[in-house]
Amino acid sequence: MKTLILMLTIGVLACSATGASAEVEADKLREALRAATLQTRQLEDQRAVLQAKVADAEREKAAAKSQAEAAKAETREAKKQYREAVDEFNRRLSERDETLEKWKVAYEEAASVARDKDAARAKFEGEANAYKASTKSCVVKNKQLVAAGKDLLQRYQSVTIGDTIVAQEPVLGLRRVEIQNSIQETGDKFLDQKVNP
C-alpha cells in the first residue's frame, strides 16, 4: 500500500513538470491520490477489524480448547469414578455371594442336624413308647407276682403241725399230691410273671 502511495506521489511530481495540462493532470492525480489514501485507510480499517475478529476467534478457540480439556478431565474423572464404583459394586457382590454361600452351607448343616435330631427324636419316642408299654406290663406282672407271693405266704403261714404230719402220710399220699400241685401252681404263677427283655 505504501508503495502504491509512493508511486502515485512520484507520478504526480513527474506530471507537474509538464505545465497546464499538467495542472489538470495534477488535479486528477491529486484526486487519485486522495481516493487511494481513502481506499488505503478503509483497507487498514478493514484489516484492523479483521485482526480483531481473528484475535477474538483465537481467544474463543483457546477458551473452547480449555473447555474441551476441562471436559476431557471431567470425563476421565467420571470414568475413573465409574470404574471405582463398578469395582466396589463387584467387590460387594462377590462378598454377598460368599456370605450367601456360607449361609447356604450353614443352612444345609443345620437342616442336616435338624433331620438327624428329628430321626433321633422319633427313634427315642418309639423306644420310650416301647419302654412305657413294657413298664406297664411289668407293673401289671409285678402286681400279680406280689399277689402270688402273698398267697404263698398265707399258705405257708396257715400250715400246721397236723398238716405236716398228714403231708407225710405214707399210705395214700393224697395230701402230699395236693401240696405238690399247689407248689407247682405257685411256681407257674411266678414263672408267668417273668419279664423277657
Write the layout of secondary structure elements.
Elements: H1 2-16, H2 20-158, H3 161-167, H4 174-192
Q: pLDDT below 50 for ≥5 consecutive residues: which ranges? A: none
**Cα separation of the termini:** 138 Å
Q: Into which percentage range does the β-strand content fall?
A: under 5%
User: Please, how many helices?
Assistant: 4
Tally the beta strands. Answer: 0
Specify Rg, calculated over alpha carbons.
Answer: 69 Å
The dominant shape is rod-shaped
Average pLDDT taken over every residue: 82
Look at the helices and sheets and give the structural class. mainly alpha
Major β-sheet annotation: none
Helix content, binned percent? over 70%
N-to-C SSE series?
HHHH
